Amino acid sequence: MLRRVNGTALIIAALVATLGALAFPVWSYADRSGTGQADVDAGTVATQWGPLTATDRDFIVKVRLAGLWELPAGQQAIERAPTEAIKECGDHLIVGHTDLDRRVRSVAAQLNIELPNQPNEQQQGWLKELTNAQGVEYERKFANLLRNAHGKVFALIAEVRHTTRNTLVRQLATDANQTVLDHITMLERTGRVDFDGIADEAAGKLTASPTGPPPPSDDPVPTAPPVSPTADDKSFTSRPSAPGSSNINTARPEPTD
């Protein structure tokens, strides 16, 4: 009798273990809390232009914030005009952010996102630094504070343009990309950008060793052959940008209300 009970218990235990093993993959797939996909889904809302994620909303707010401090920085640059390059850069900041602000306000209104009306604390600090600086110190601070800020937002624009599923946000990222690239170009023309400082700051935030080909040797390397189409029909209509051109085309479609 005891053997029969023990045998029955073993069979029941084996069945429970089997059912548990079968159920685990289903449970583990359904409960994805703490995963990247769950984090995306948790902050996502549906709109008629596609899903709107927390990253999308953060991007929209940051586009607005950029204009709130960079436009007055541009006005100050025109008023002070220590050099023609900085005055011209200030002109681009004003024109670019006036246009971009109109676009971001249109997008935010359609997506029902509340926008800030004042620069954040860090941006107010930057404006104070610029106001207090004089002479060459002002030129350096103007070029580097703004160049650093534009460089950092560039990465966010690329991420949003790559990943967003919302058509309004995607177009705004395209518009912002053109504006930011234009401003980066103009800031670098001032001749005051500290590229070593930017590289050192970025290197201090790296969490992994950079990868890539080995450093060049003293021995000459073979010349790489050109990449060219193999098809017989070469009647292509598009044309590349002019070689060596540093002017950024900022023309773009008007925003839709």
How big a fraction of the residues is strand?
under 5%
Order of secondary-structure elements: HHHHHHHH
Largest sheet: none
Count of alpha and pi helical runs: 8
Structural class: mainly alpha
Calculate Rg over CA atoms.
27 Å
Q: How would you state the average pLDDT, rounded?
A: 83
Shape: globular
Brief rundown of the structure:
With 257 residues, the chain is mostly helical. It is built from eight helices and no strands.
Plain-language structure description:
This protein has 257 residues and is mainly α. The protein contains 8 helices and no strands. Helix 3 (54-80) runs parallel beside helix 7 (167-189).
SSE topology:
Layout: H1 2-30, H2 36-42, H3 54-80, H4 84-111, H5 121-132, H6 135-163, H7 167-189, H8 195-204
Salient structural properties:
8 helices; 257 residues; globular; mainly alpha
